[in-house]
Amino acid sequence: MNTGAPLPSLSAATGRVLGIQTKLHRWADEDASRRFDDLFNLVCDPAFLVVAWSRVKGNKGARTAGVDGVRPRDLAADERQFLTALRAELKAGRFRPLPVREHRIPKRGGKLRSLGIPTAADRTVQAALKLVLEPIFEADFKPCSHGFRPGRSAHDAIAEVRHYAAHGYSWVVEGDITACFDTIDHTALMDRVRQRVGDKRVLALVKAFLKAGVLTKDAGLKDTTTGTPQGGILSPLLSNIALSVLDEHFNTMWTTTMATPYRRKKRRQHGQPNYRLTRYADDFVVTVHGDRADAEDLRDQIAQILAPMGLELSQAKTHITHIDEGLVFLGYRIQRHRKRGTNRRFVYTYPSKNAVAAIKAKVKTYSREDRDKPLADLLRRLNLVLRGWTNYFRHGACKATLGYLRAYSWQRVILWLRRKHPRANWKQLRRRYLPGWRPTDGDQTLFDPASVPVRYYRYRGSNVPTPWPTATTTA
Length: 475
Known about the structure:
This protein is of the alpha+beta class and about 475 residues long.
């Protein structure tokens, strides 16, 4: 490797990074016990730094600064100088991560979620680390894990739960881990990273990010003895590595005792349950083909599996429900009930009440603000949230909900117009703003959620392609 090479163009760097990632993934897939020793030079490689920086500056977080007060987008003019200096620090062993800046965002229920915002340099190095480590650990991750993985989405997890529920797995353990991202044990996590990474410089870099600390508004600098701060680019990968202990346990049980229809049938004849895990980041459910007692036993078993990683299963928030009662998972309500007009029962997915209430609250908030601005500004803001919400929830029985949202958003815009033009009558407003009865201003027309076609997301099982094809990849 030519470590003195100049920075390549983004297109050339992308091709080089993809080629190296494909090799790393293939080697990891071919040998489950292989440890990779020379990875630090890849983190310092100009191509990896260029691709990492392109992802950092292209992210919405480029508008926010870390503890140094420098926003990534402010470095766009001098990015080559910035990357050259950063690479020199890495090669010389002088790079040290700075503490992350704490930023709190509201959660449902009035609580606050803490996010850690790294500096631009730290984000770039984390992105380069992820480019190197992700293809290696992806070879080990199990198909039941869907969160923050290439080619997978929340819809894969939802479709998987629906698939199992429709095939006899009627009892559900809804898991909730207490402060998952804040309590992961660093020693246990690093032990799992060492199973694949032998390069001590990379291990030291990962550990340095874990121990960097948090700069809070109230208490000042706070040490991070556990957890992976949310907001960092590397945090989702590290959390998946930690939580893969759960995936591996359930995958081992499946492959050794339940992998064939005959084995599953014999287990049921002997009163033993069959079960499957579906996980999206720290949200997971276990579907059980058995009875409630079997589900309760699994809840205790899950708590024991998570304990060595420093994670605690919340007994108060971990629920056991029957699919006929329904559960809420990743914003969707999944429930089995009778199809209207028939005696047949099916498992349906549709937006949860909280999800509908959240989008209504956003529409209501936007339509109460900025009456001094033109209608086009309101429509632009509404269209962003309506289109995003609709595209996420279109994979289910939601036609009636989308029709309701269409009427609700239309009504809120009309109320906004009436307040903006109190002296105008309905005829004047209709002529000016309602051609075809859809609120319009210039090139902006209110998005119609009911116009989006509704169809169920197809369950893909383990047939999810990765960006790095190998000889054993399933087509």
